[in-house]
Amino acid sequence: MPSSAGRLLLLLPTTTYRTEAFVEAATRLGVELVCASERPSTFEPLAPDALITLDFTDPAACAETVARFARRRPLDAVVPADDLTTVVAAAIAQRLGLRANSVPAVSTARDKHAMRRCLAGAGVPVPRFRLVSLGDDPALRAAETTYPCVLKPLALSASRGVIRANDAREFVAAFRRISAILDMKDVSLPGEARHALLVEEFIPGVEVALEGLLVAGTLHVLAIFDKPDPLAGPFFEETIYVTPSRLPEDTQACIAAVTREACSALGLAEGPVHAELRVNERGPFILEVAARSIGGLCSRTLTFGTGLSLEELILCHALGRPLESLERERRAAGVMMIPIPRAGRLAAVHGTDEAAAVEGIEEVAITMHPGQDVVPLPEGWQYLGFIFARAETPDAVEQALRSAHARLRFAIE
């Protein structure tokens, strides 16, 4: 029988930043965890009831494997940690009859071209776009394009492989660079995503992120983050997130309304949502709607009700527990994803104590270790680390993050 506190399957790719946060949330909630990864753990033979190895590239096979496991250890819920496992989670939930998004809805959200087609067909504002095969002559496709444009892979995250082109020469260079990225050993994509890319118009304006939770088809907005650093290209490395947003209330209402329309059009109905939008005089445009929560360690900026973390909210919802409050704490909060200034090997990080001493700074978390190769965008996808701040105003949070970052020095060989 399932655990009285709930037994939950957590899908944890080995590359995810989210393991610690979800495991801590489960511990605080008294949830019995079963963890699945794509690589076998040396502890799996010692803990066969708590660890599973799954091939995340084959959702149907994953669902069958978990169904066999669940016959002796029934599961109450399944939660994906990040993009790589959203479709797998939907397939498992469908196979076990658990509440979750449908496989078609999550698959559409996972594929940028399919998502664009779905949203455009429903009248949701998105950039103009077209699919380009990597087997095409890039010079011919460049001649057909209106500039500036953005080229991007169909299914990578963290802005990996996203490049702006201002003319035909830059288009061809970006096309070839993305093609090389898709051939890298650590890139594993399904079907069309390996052989095509998306070309879309560049939308000027400010960029924001919306964090939400879908409950029975209703989107509850948990936070809207400002991204105060301009994201104009040629690459789109995200740095600072600050909430609450400083945009006018009516603009924030429009952002929430467009995101709700997008979720409805995609058929997403349950669980966390992370949306990226551009906003200008024409209103908000959807860049992405992902059926998962915010990436990296950024969820540490969010606390709800009487102190619940974002991961605790997600687990409670998945298990059908009552959600007492979805109200974010009153104080402003923010995170800086520390960018990689250049490629090389990280030798040392200096100034962390000085950075942590800045007023408003809660933590400086360096997640790369000395000796590790560091790769900037667009080929890379990781950050050097994260800086977290809280203060009475969003402006004070932003200033604290910038001040702390200025005190850090990275020795890269």
Concise overview:
By secondary structure, this protein is of the alpha+beta class. The protein is 29% helix and 28% strand. It has a four-stranded parallel β-sheet. The protein has a four-stranded antiparallel β-sheet with strand order 5-8-6-7, with helices on both faces.
Written description of the protein model:
With 413 residues, this protein is of the alpha+beta class. Among the domains are: 7-101, Rossmann fold, CATH 3.40.50; 128-201, ATP-grasp fold, A domain (Dna Ligase, domain 1), CATH 3.30.1490; 334-413, D-amino Acid Aminotransferase, Chain A, domain 1 (2-Layer Sandwich). It is 29% helix and 28% strand. The protein has 11 helices and 21 strands. The strands form 6 sheets. A 4-stranded parallel β-sheet has the order 3-2-1-4. A 4-stranded antiparallel β-sheet has the order 5-8-6-7, sandwiched between helices. It has a 4-stranded antiparallel β-sheet with strand order 10-9-12-13. Helix 1 crosses helix 9, helix 2 packs across helix 3 and helix 4 packs across helix 5. The relative contact order is 0.12. The mean pLDDT is 93.
